[in-house]
Amino acid sequence: MVEDCGELPDDTTATRLIHHPYVAPADFESPVVGVHKASTVFFPNMAALRARSWVDKSAYTYGLHGTPTTFTLEARLATLEHARHILLAPSGLSALTVVNMALLKQGDAMLLPDNVYFPSKEFARHEMAAWGVTHQLYDAMNPASLAALLTPAVKLVWLEAPGSVTLEFPDLPALITLVRQHAPQAVIALDNTWGAGLAFNPFELRGADGAVLGVDLTIHALTKYPSGGGDVLMGSIACRDQALYERLAWTHSRLGLGVGANDAEALLRALPSLPLRYHTQDAAARRIATWATQQPQLARVLHPALSGSHGHAHWASQCSAAAGLLTLEFDPRYSAAQVDAFVDGLTYFRIGWSWGGPISLAVPYNPQGMRKLGSAYQGTLVRLCIGLEAVDDLIADLAAGLARMG
Ligand SMILES: Cc1ncc(COP(=O)(O)O)c(C=O)c1O
């Protein structure tokens, strides 16, 4: 038995506060977009409720479908990505996995470059395999290795430019041409995080004969350059085709993915300075890469804009910028422990994953076992992502670290 708590006080304050007649004027404008928060969205009447569709962005439906804040972010990202449609996801990795889940079913196959962002391979090896989707790895720097895998079962081909950590830049038009010729049923998806919408346009690449070739969709870890702060996790999926967008959008909606209004606002605040930050970090990384080629402790410096780097000619023909990443290959005479000590001794480079933020980062990688199809590298690798510090300070930091190694 529940004890009766007596008569409720006859107080209408709550009702009058909830159903308050004041409505702020609609035409407020300021430099920043408002932070709209919602799970419930009101409909003016039943006809409006019945008319609204989840994949149509002309009106609001429910918080997960979007708000003025997220619709504005999507529109600006569509401009950045040279696309028509954008879906937002809670991280770059979740944007990747939505694409896989939307486009693949039991019996299908997908192809990934061996130098793809490592967690993509793990998703293929675990979840996709458990759901009956097979995958194979190809060497992105050898188009023939992709051609050999293009069967009717292949429904999705991933591209990444440049490769993760080792930064080889593939011949994207050649890879796209092969897929269109031998697996026309396959969707071509590119991880565009490095290019960030600024280095090249994946929807309009040029083949050797000048013909326009494009991927079908891109994903972007907005966590990196668009956020720029090292403080927001978000991803996007971008495409041009309406039917493809609807396939992706329905899966995205059924998975219940959304992003927080404050994170969307942080992205909207950061986007205007994206080109400035990206090109500044690009210029700094190129200066550091050029300096690093002269250091005797290093066997190689991996950066697509360096003339000796793997795929430099492809980068030069397809790109107008190069992000802020470079990888140092230490001379194999240095042990992994010595390279760890080099990283530990740095002052301005902090140890941590990700990139695109204001603070420079360094992470060592063991090249052995890193690639299934074999590694071209002998010495320990250190991936540097260049922040916004003064370049001379960063070079002095690296120089002192190298000098300590002898
Ligand atoms: C190339 C690339 N794609 C995707 C991701 C995933 O992004 P997030 O960290 O937002 O999941 C990363 C993260 O490092 C990345 O480097």
Fraction in beta strands: 15-25%
Q: Please report the distance between the alpha carbons of the first and last residues.
A: 81 Å
On the 0-100 scale, what is the average pLDDT?
96
Number of helices: 13
Shape: globular
Low-confidence stretches: none
Structural description of this entry:
By secondary structure, the chain is an alpha/beta fold. It has 13 helices and 14 strands. A seven-stranded mixed β-sheet has the order 1-9-8-5-4-2-3, with helices on both faces. Helix 5 links the parallel strand 2 and strand 3. The protein is globular. The model has no long low-confidence stretch (mean pLDDT 96). Pyridoxal-5'-phosphate (PLP) binds next to helix 4.
List the helices and strands and how they pair.
Layout: H1 13-18, H2 46-51, H3 68-81, E1 85-89, H4 92-103, E2 109-113, H5 118-130, E3 134-138, H6 143-147, E4 154-160, H7 172-182, E5 187-191, E6 205-206, E7 212-213, E8 217-221, E9 235-239, H8 242-254, H9 261-270, H10 274-292, E10 298-302, H11 312-318, E11 325-330, H12 336-344, E12 350-351, E13 361-365, E14 381-385, H13 391-405
Parallel strand pairs: 2-3, 2-4, 4-5, 5-8, 12-13
Antiparallel strand pairs: 1-9, 6-7, 8-9, 10-11, 11-14, 13-14
Structure described in brief:
This protein has 406 residues and is of the alpha/beta class.
